[in-house]
């Protein structure tokens, strides 16, 4: 899946921080986990800790081995804009 062309800024990511509108960034890619929420084996509250932001560290602390690109294949939105470089 390609996702959208425009990368997602951190400001936009931060706006999707609710249980009914939940985006997370993992390893530079942004996913809409709204519909995955009720299926997360770790529960809603745990997954909510990572929404609206870069959840890479949380994700890797708990289950770095989980195959999220496959699980969230249809939930892929696009790349997270790397503010540091300013070009992507
Ligand atoms: C458990 C998927 C994000 C916290 C799990 C499991 C899966 C999963 C498949 C079951 C692991 C097992 O079989 O033992 C995902 C996916 C995520 C995600 C696809 C993508 C967004 C997160 C985040 C957090 C989190 C951001 C925490 C901030 C947990 C916890 C468990 C868990 C606490 C329970 C671990 C255990 O019982 O040993 N998750 N997770 N997950 N997840 Fe996630």
Short description:
This protein has four helices and four strands; from the N terminus they run αβββαααβ. The chain is 26% helix and 18% strand. Residues 24, 33, 40-42, 46-47, 49-50, 55, 58-59, 62-63, 66, 68, 71-72 line the site of protoporphyrin IX containing FE.
Structural class based on helices, strands and sheet pairing? alpha+beta
**Averaging pLDDT over every residue, what do you get?**
94
What is the level-2 CATH architecture name? Roll
Rg, Cα atoms, Å: 12 Å
- In whole angstroms, the N-to-C terminal distance is 19 Å
Low-pLDDT ranges: none
Number of DSSP helical runs: 4
Oligomerization state of this entry?
A: single chain
Described by the principal axes of the CA atoms, the overall outline is globular
Pattern of helices and strands: HEEEHHHE
Number of strands: 4
How much helicity do the residues have?
25-40%
- Count of individual domains: 1
Strand content: 15-25%
Q: CATH class, anyone?
A: Alpha Beta
Bound small molecules, by name, code or SMILES, are:
protoporphyrin IX containing FE
CATH topology: Flavocytochrome B2, Chain A, domain 1
Please tell me about this protein's structure.
The chain has one domain: Flavocytochrome B2, Chain A, domain 1. The chain has a four-stranded antiparallel sheet with strand order 1-2-3-4. The mean pLDDT is 94. With 88 residues, it is of the alpha+beta class. The chain has four helices and four strands. The structure holds protoporphyrin IX containing FE. This is Cytochrome b5 reductase 4. It comes from Drosophila albomicans. Belongs to the flavoprotein pyridine nucleotide cytochrome reductase family.
């Amino acid at each position: 899946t390609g996702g959208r062309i425009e990368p997602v800024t951190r400001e936009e990511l931060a706006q999707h921080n609710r249980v009914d509108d939940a985006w997370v960034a993992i390893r530079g890619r942004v996913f809409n986990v709204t519909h995955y929420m009720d299926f997360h084996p770790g529960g809603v509250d745990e997954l909510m800790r990572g929404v609206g932001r870069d959840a890479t560290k949380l994700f890797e602390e708990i289950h770095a081995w989980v195959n999220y690109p496959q699980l969230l294949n249809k939930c892929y939105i696009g790349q997270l804009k790397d503010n540091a470089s300013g070009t992507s």
